[in-house]
């Protein structure tokens, strides 16, 4: 059963807060945002991006690999599954195809607000699959035990 739109929104908000917080801590510990030399040639976009990915994996890597969930999805009892088989997708698909859409939410703050809006609006269809679900061949569903309790 497809996860409800609102459960997906709550999961996204939780991840939207947790992942950048952990990424910022990684950046502080690594010194990438405190080191003046890092800023000498302009903003260190590549390093910040890599450390953001590290933060994402620290927060969500194990859950994604084992259960197809981010912390936000775990919190609201939904998970990502392969659209055809219903199994947890291959980890590489979750990281290489699906995860790059997460920064779109943050892109809204620098003027690209329409990107996450388009992605979310597509998710209002009956199958609840957003653009990033179509790209990766996934679907977000209520966890099996939770779906059985609702019936």
Topology:
Blueprint lengths: L4 H26 L5 H4 L5 H23 L3 H6 L1 E5 L8 H8 L4 H5 L6 H9 L8 H6 L1 E5 L1 H7 L1
Antiparallel strand pairs: 1-2
Task: Please describe the structure with a list of short key phrases separated by commas or semicolons.
151 residues, two-stranded antiparallel sheet
Description of the structure:
There is one protein chain. The chain has one domain (5-150). α1 (5-30) crosses α3 (45-67). It is mainly alpha-helical and 151 residues long. The chain is globular and about 50 Å long. The chain has nine helices and two strands, in the order ααααβααααβα.
Task: Give a brief outline of the structure.
The chain has 151 residues and is mainly alpha-helical. 62% of the residues lie in helices and 7% in strands. The chain has a two-stranded antiparallel sheet with strand order 1-2.
């Amino acid at each position: 059963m497809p996860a409800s739109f609102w459960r997906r929104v709550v999961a996204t908000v939780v991840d939207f807060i947790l992942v950048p917080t952990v990424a910022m801590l990684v950046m502080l510990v690594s010194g990438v945002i405190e080191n003046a030399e890092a800023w000498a040639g302009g903003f260190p976009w590549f390093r910040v991006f890599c450390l953001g990915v590290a933060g994402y994996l620290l927060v969500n890597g194990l859950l994604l690999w084992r259960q197809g969930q981010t912390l936000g999805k775990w919190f609201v009892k939904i998970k990502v599954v392969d659209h055809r088989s219903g199994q947890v997708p291959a980890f590489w698909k979750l990281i290489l195809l699906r995860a790059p859409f997460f920064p779109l939410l943050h892109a809204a703050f620098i003027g690209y607000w329409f990107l996450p809006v388009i992605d979310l609006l597509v998710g209002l269809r009956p199958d609840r699959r957003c653009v990033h679900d179509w790209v990766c061949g996934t679907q977000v569903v209520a966890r099996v035990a939770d779906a059985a309790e609702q019936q």
